[in-house]
């Protein structure tokens, strides 16, 4: 045990009337909704990188956080793990997620870096056995080190492609050893800043081949979890090849991987792509590639990915409504890819940020579940498209332009528009909040 969170109690559910900051008002993990406990629906996970590895810099200033485990030694890496698992227990989150670079020091070469990761994985295994906390997903950091400044899989240097592939293997091995339920790929540098020095066709082929290798290795190792891609449109690169859910699906189709890979969708990335979170979730559901979510929010007055803890219950209601319409999480879950503000320095801030985020998610989820069970929104949507369920509507899509033309003339059709009733439906949604 460490004393970093000394004096902070385990967080319990106390209900909406509680005035205790260190308590849940909405998140009751044992409450059964739609046949399952809320904990099984939401499947909360804490992000190792933002909570324990991030020094709280931004594009205009450096580190503001000072943590006793900051440093590049194995001893400090183990201290970081001790603190992390204490937080997981305080919050009673069932899962966590990590990149390799979050958890182990960089070695003098690839072999030493790999040994460091393997040692920490063994240490994680002990901590997981002691606490019951599980791994939602692992991933490789192929964007922070300067070697990845021109990409990893899409790099013009084949040696960096090889280094990246080897790193992914070690991270998949770590994920499998720890019983991870998914493996995520986020291509933070897989894009370009200018076409003047970019062979886009070659880079897409390299990225596609790397993903095929990942899928092949999954099957070789008998990994039963999901392979997930996390879309993002920009930042740090000007244009990333995994721009949004639809772009990712086109990429998967191009390389014959649409049945093998799903998406991990982040709220902040959806906004940067010019979409809403619920749009990206609905698109993934319709394309049958929905996997998991990173829950955070952006500051809508800033043009970059601010990764703030979620607090907008109406937005989360619409998001979880789409999650439920997709059948809920299978191997995926709700990962808090969110970080403290640069002025929030105390251990209590880290705990309370998660408490608030978990409560907001729970409130949104309960509203979404009530809305889906009530069925009024679905009934209104069905009514709007009812004509397509008629025999004439069904036949229309199997017809041809000439036949349709003749039918319109024969029937003397003069169709008039019907209200979409948007405001009425927006009012309906607000009843559940």
UniProtKB/TrEMBL annotation:
It catalyses: alpha-D-xylose = alpha-D-xylulofuranose. It comes from Planktotalea frisia. The keyword Metal-binding applies. This is Xylose isomerase. InterPro entries: Xyl_isomerase-like_sf, Xylose_isom_bac, Xylose_isomerase. Mg(2+) 2 binds at residues 266, 269, 305, 307. Homotetramer. GO terms for molecular function: magnesium ion binding; xylose isomerase activity. The active site is at 99, 102. Its cofactor is Mg(2+). One of its GO terms (biological process) is D-xylose metabolic process. It is found in: Cytoplasm. Its EC number is 5.3.1.5.
């Amino acid at each position: 045990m460490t004393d970093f969170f000394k004096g902070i109690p385990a967080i319990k559910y106390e209900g909406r009337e509680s005035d205790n900051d260190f308590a849940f008002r909405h998140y009751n993990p044992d409450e059964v909704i739609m046949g399952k406990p809320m904990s099984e629906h939401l499947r909360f996970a804490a992000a190792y990188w933002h909570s324990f590895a991030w020094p709280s810099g931004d594009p205009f200033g450096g580190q503001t956080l000072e943590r006793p485990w900051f440093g590049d030694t194995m001893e400090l890496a183990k201290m970081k793990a001790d603190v992390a698992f204490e937080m997981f227990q305080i919050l009673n989150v069932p899962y966590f997620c990590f990149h390799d670079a979050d958890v182990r020091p960089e070695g003098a070469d690839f072999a030493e870096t790999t040994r460091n990761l393997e040692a920490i994985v063994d240490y994680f295994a002990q901590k997981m056995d002691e606490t019951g906390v599980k791994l939602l997903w692992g991933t490789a950091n192929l964007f922070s080190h300067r070697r990845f400044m021109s990409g990893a899989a899409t790099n013009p240097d084949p040696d960096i492609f090889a280094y990246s592939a080897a790193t992914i293997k070690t991270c998949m091995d770590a994920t499998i050893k720890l019983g991870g339920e998914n493996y995520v790929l986020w291509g933070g540098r897989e894009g370009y800043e200018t076409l003047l020095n970019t062979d886009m066709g070659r880079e897409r082929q390299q990225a596609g081949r790397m993903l095929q290798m990942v899928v092949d290795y999954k099957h070789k190792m008998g990994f039963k979890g999901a392979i997930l891609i996390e879309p993002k449109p920009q930042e740090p690169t000007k244009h990333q090849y995994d721009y949004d859910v639809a772009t990712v699906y086109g990429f998967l189709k191009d390389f014959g991987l649409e049945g093998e890979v799903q998406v991990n969708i982040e709220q902040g990335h959806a906004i940067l792509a010019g979409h809403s979170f619920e749009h990206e979730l609905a698109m993934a559901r319709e394309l049958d590639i929905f996997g998991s979510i990173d829950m955070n929010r952006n500051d809508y007055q800033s043009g970059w990915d601010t990764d703030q803890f979620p607090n907008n219950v109406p937005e989360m209601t619409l998001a979880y409504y789409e999650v439920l319409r997709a059948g809920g999480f299978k191997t995926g879950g709700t990962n808090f890819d969110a970080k403290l503000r640069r002025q929030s320095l105390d251990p209590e801030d880290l705990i309370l940020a998660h408490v608030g985020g978990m409560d907001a998610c729970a409130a949104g989820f309960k509203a979404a579940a009530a809305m889906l069970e009530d069925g009024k929104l679905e009934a209104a949507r069905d009514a709007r498209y009812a004509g397509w369920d008629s025999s004439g509507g069904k036949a229309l899509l199997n017809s041809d332009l000439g036949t349709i033309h003749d039918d319109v003339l024969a029937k003397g059709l003069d169709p008039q528009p019907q209200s979409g009733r948007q405001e009425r439906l927006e009012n309906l949604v607000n009843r559940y909040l």
